[in-house]
Amino acid sequence: MDGVHDLGGMQGFGPVEVEPDEPTFHGEWEARMFAVAGGALGAGGFNTPMFRHAIERMDPGHYLTSSYFEHWLTAVATLLVEEGMISRDDLDARVSSFPLSRPTTVDADDVDGASPRETPRFAVGDAVRVRDLHFGGHSRCPRYIRGRRGVVARIDVAAPIPEFEAHRRERVLDPTYGVRFDAAELWSEAAEANAPVYVDLYEQYLELVT
Amino acid sequence: MTDDHGHHPAPLTDVERRARALEELLTEKGIVSPEFIDQVVEAYAQDIGPMNGAKVVARAWVDPEYKRRLLADGTAAIAELGIGGPEGDHIVAVENTPDVHNVVVCTLCSCYPWPVLGLPPTWYKSPPYRSRMVREPRTVLAEMGCDVPDDVEIRVWDSSAEMRYLVLPARPPGTDAVSEEDLAATVTRDAMIGVARP
Questions:
Q1: What CA–CA distances, in Å, run from B46 to A23, B50, B55, B75, B84?
Q2: Are residues B123 and B141 located together in one domain of the fold?
Q3: How far is B98 from A196, CA to CA, in rounded Å?
Q4: What are the E-state strand segments in chain A?
Q5: Contacts of B158 in chain A (CB under 8 A)
Q6: Contact criterion met (CB < 8 Å) for B156 and A197
Q7: Which of A110, A198, B92, B188 has its CB surrounded by the most CB atoms within 10 Å?
Q8: Predicted ipTM > 0.90
Q9: Tens digits of per-residue pLDDT, A110-169?
Q10: Do B21 and B70 fall into the same domain?
């Protein structure tokens, strides 16, 4: 989805603020939330793409004004309610307000059919273009590279396509690649010199430039 | 059960109340066990952190054969040192050289090589870092106190799929006589993300 989580290249967020000597967890609740999330995702059989998509479905205003572990909290509670493992009433009985993520807007049928594929179609050095995809569900194809041309720099493992895992709980394999993009291809006249970006992409996001 | 872990002097914040409510609900329903929670908390608070990545870097600095293996197959090379686990199935080590500086980001979420670096710092997960590092890396690095000369290529690695990146910093000059263990003590998390140069 073209969501608020897809931050690459957006402007207006200001400087990176570094907390000196930051602890791993800020307070006990973050540590416990991290562990609770791991246990709950395992117990519900939720895969990582489902979890990520539950974060992406947060209200954009909530997403931008809440911490990483509040994202986790919101996403885990959302998945458990959607799966019927807990209920909205269970939460409401304990706290006055418990914002959850919005429902997904796509069905399992909206994910295109594809066959598992492990053999890469592209070779290192191939010129590729990122397809101009605007799928409404979970995807790992960032907005800032769509339609842009790059060069295959590395061939990686064949891995489950995130769209299938998130919306069908199916593992359909696709080769993955590291693709190099020149900064000028991405940012035109605003590009910094000598600063290429490498993005890891599933083969289905790419087409060969001939 | 709230008293097991709840000696907060200050009133709970809204998010703490929600987190506690969810934890209580899940432990009461038997979906997550308190023992599991305690184990995970302890592991990530004590055993998993940048000291693991620092050992990898120091070994690569003193052992050229290990460095070659690390750059060829990061996952296998960290496993040689007994390091692995969640978010560490596909480790790629990228080497800083006189001509290239590497820096890692995840624009879509906060992917990070947990087994070697632990959990990411807040700034790594923040919108400013995630939005800007792919677009103006030299500027962001300079703002963070990491000046990269203009003639050095900055390679930004957006870990958007399966790979998790570890930056192999350049060994500081004048450290030939320093032991591997002492070298490891000098390697920082930020250098292994690529926002600092030792």
A1: 11, 11, 16, 22, 15
A2: yes
A3: 17
A4: 127-130, 149-160, 173-181, 197-202, 206-208
A5: 8, 142, 197-200
A6: yes
A7: A198
A8: yes
A9: 997 778 889 999 999 999 999 999 999 999 999 999 999 999 999 999 999 999 999 999
A10: no
Q: Which CATH number fits domain A114-208: 3.30.70.260, 2.60.40.1180, 3.40.50.920, 2.30.30.50?
A: 2.30.30.50
Q: Beta partners for B166?
A: B93
What is the phi-psi region of residue A26: left when phi exceeds 0, alpha when psi lies from -120 to 50, beta otherwise? beta
- Is B109 catalytic? The answer is yes
Is this prediction's pTM over 0.90? yes
- Whether residue B20 and residue A29 make contact (CB cut-off 8 A), yes or no, is yes
CB within 8 Å: A73 and B15: yes
Q: What CATH class does A1-101 carry? A: mainly alpha
pLDDT in tens, B152-168: 999 999 999 999 999 99
One-letter amino acid at A155 equals I
Number of domains observed in the structure of chain B: 2
Helix (H/G/I), strand (E/B), else coil: B18: helix
